[in-house]
Amino acid sequence: MKRILLTLALLLLTTQLQAEELKQLLNLPYGDHPRQVLDFYPAKSDKPTPVVFYIHGGGWRGGDKKTNPKAFLDKGISVVAINYRYVQNGVEQKVEPPVKAPLSDAARALQFVRSKASEWNLDKERIGATGGSAGACSSLWLAFHDDLADPKSDDPIARESTRLYCAAVNGAQVSLDPKELREWMPNYKYGAHAFGLPNLESVIENRESLMPWIKEYSPIESVSKDDPPIALFYGGEVPVVGASPKDPTHSGIMGVKLAERLEEADVDVVLVTPGTEKPKYKNSTEYLIDRLTN
């Protein structure tokens, strides 16, 4: 009986230690700002695991990294969920343009995760980004942007790659260019806050001077043939380019235009919108599990 009780006590202690260890993997700082923290959910595996890199939505002005990693953990995929500076934090810190704050934070967090690959038992090559709305836009920006690694940096984290293995996103904005957005959807109004401006009309008025920023921070502008496989999921209405959808901010019209650009560059792309018949993947979770484990 004493032996059984001792065994049970040891099991309880082990469970408590594991729980405490898991707590220590929450709100890990990857920078100095209070918003620059992430949660790491490790999958149990004897070999390095793939990673889902989750970037929350909220217009780059709100939202939080809270997520349920179970579907991925059950498949042996670890999960990282990040917080990042909002655009208003960028304004406070005089970051130009303000959208550089959340996007550069996403890149830095990804580099931080790669720097922990050995310690956290991660396959640093198999990292797939995901998110909704602004988090989806950030994921696509990472997917298409040239590698931001600095091989000569004294900072070992900055030497890590920002390239992705794949990305699967929901309701993504794909451009910050008001001209093309209004051509696709005449009623489009979103995105001025990325540049610290009050409305899209202000962006249109200043478009010429803003073009360097528009090109730098619009995912569609960085598409090239070496980009990773992409899956785009949209709800709402059947997308019709030139129409004025009820929710232009998350319309599949943007997915249609990005998919065209990706196909022109010969990048593997899956587009699922209302009206898509018999899609291979019902959602971003299914896509990521398939891509990261096969």
UniProtKB/TrEMBL annotation:
It holds the Pfam family BD-FAE. Coiled coil: none annotated. Gene3D superfamilies: alpha/beta hydrolase. The keyword Hydrolase applies. GO terms for molecular function: triacylglycerol lipase activity. InterPro entries: AB_hydrolase_fold (IPR029058), BD-FAE-like_dom (IPR049492), GDXG_lipolytic_enzyme (IPR050300). This is Probable lipase/esterase. It comes from Blastopirellula marina DSM 3645.
